[in-house]
Amino acid sequence: MAATPNRFALHRAARVLRDGGIIAYPTEAVYGLGCDPLNGDAVHRLLALKQRPVEKGLILIANRFEQLAPFILPVTDAIRARLEQTWPGPATWLLPANPATPTWLRGRHSSIAVRVTAHPLAAALCGAFGAPIVSTSANTSGRPPARSAMQARLRCPGIDLVLSGATGGLRRPTPIRDALSGELLRAG
Predict the structure, then answer these.
(1) Are 44 and 52 in contact (CB under 8 A)?
(2) Which residue from 146, 154, 142 is spatially nearest to 25, judged by alpha carbons?
(3) What secondary structure letter does DSSP report for 69?
(4) Which of 64, 99, 143, 188 sits in a 20 to 30 Å window from 171, CA-based?
(5) How do the domains of the chain map onto residue ranges?
(6) Tens of pLDDT, residues 116-173
(7) What's the CA angle centered on 183, arms 175 and 139, to 5 degrees?
(8) Does residue 3 have a pLDDT over 90?
(9) What does DSSP say about strands 92-96 and 176-178: parallel, antiparallel, or unpaired?
(10) How far is CA 68 from CA 59, 61, 119, 152, 178, in A?
C-alpha cells in the first residue's frame, strides 16, 4: 500500500479541489479522477473529460463515515454494522441518497455509491480537503483505467494536478453492493 504523501502535496491537492479543479490520485486498484462533489461545474467538466453520461452517477470516497452523512439518508443500525465490517476498505456501497444530493452525483438513481477508503493517500486527501471527493477511474469511458501517474496524465489530458503514489494493489476496481439488499452490482 502507498505511503501517505507529504503535507505540501496534500494541501496543494486540496487547494486545487477547493478552486474547482480536477485531480488524479491513486486508489485501491487504479488511479481515480476527483473533484469537489458540490461544485457542479467541476463535476460536469470531469464527466466531459471522461465522456461519461451524468445519468450513470459517480462514487464518493471519504476518510470517515461522517463525511458521507450529508449525501445519504440516515442508515439503520443493521446497515451501519454491515458497512463497518468493510470500512475503511475496498468496498463501495450504494446507499439511499439524501434528496438534496445533486443529480450530477447520483445520476438517474435514488441512491449514491460511497466508500470509506483505507488507501493512505486517498484517505489523507479526503482529510486535507475536509470532505468526500468524487472518485471515478482515470480514463475515457470504455477505455482501460490508468494504473500510474504517467498513464493518468496521458489518458486524461485536461486534469489540473496528479497526486503521485502507488495504487493499493487490487487487480480490479472495488466491488459495489447495494446496502439495502446486499446484491452485488459490480464484482471486485
Answers:
(1) no
(2) 146
(3) G
(4) 64
(5) 7-186
(6) 999 999 999 999 999 999 999 999 988 999 999 999 999 999 999 999 999 998 988 8
(7) 30
(8) no
(9) parallel
(10) 11, 8, 17, 26, 16
The reply to whether the predicted model has a pTM over 0.70 is yes
Higher pLDDT, 186 or 31: 31
Report residue 92 CA to chain centroid gap. 9
Dist. CA 25–CA 174, nearest whole Å: 15
C-alpha cell at 131: 470532505
Percentage of the chain lying above the pLDDT 90 cut: 90
Q: What is the dihedral of CA 125, 129, 135, 138, to 10 degrees?
A: -60
> How far is 54 from 40, CA to CA, in rounded Å?
11
CA–CA gap between residue 63 and residue 99 (Å, rounded)? 23
Q: What is the DSSP letter of 31?
A: E
Give which of 2, 29, 3, 21 is closest to 133, Cα–Cα: 21
Interstrand relation of 59-62 and 111-116 (parallel, antiparallel or unpaired): parallel
Using CA atoms, how far apart are residues 188 and 183, in angstroms rounded to an integer?
Answer: 13
Fold of the domain spanning 7-186: DHBP synthase (3.90.870)
How many CA atoms lie within 13 Å of 137's alpha carbon, on the beta-carbon side?
Answer: 16
* CB contact at 8 A, 135 and 115: yes
- pLDDT tens digits, one per residue of 93-114: 999 999 999 999 999 999 999 9
Check: CB of residue 58 under 8 Å from CB of residue 136. Answer: yes
